Amino acid sequence: MGAFSFLGTSSGKESNIATYVIREHRRGRTVNEILEDHYVTNRLTPEQVNRVLDRPEVIRALGDQIVAEARSPKS
Q: Total structural domains in the chain?
């Protein structure tokens, strides 16, 4: 491992979670339900989740409205 190997760790996790979110949504699950999965919450901080929701591939797959709803504070 190189001295700077840690630099890609976060974006690699985010990429994996983005793929997971898209796959699970295609299976019929809601985005909020997916984001509450332990698989997601154990791997990413809330800030990283927001970056996942900003990814163009996630927005294309889920749609702008669904992403906006997932970002809204839970009441």
A: 1
pTM, 2 dp: 0.76
Residue pLDDT, tens place only, 29-45: 999 999 999 999 999 99
Which residues span the domain enclosing 67?
Answer: 10-71
∠ at Cα 59 (22, 57), nearest 5°?
A: 65
CA distances to 3, 29, 42 from 26, rounded to whole Å, are 38, 7, 22
* Burial (Cβ within 10 Å: 0-12, 13-18, ≥19) of residue 6: exposed
Q: Average pLDDT for residues 10-33, to the nearest whole number? A: 93
- Answer yes or no: is 5 within a domain: no
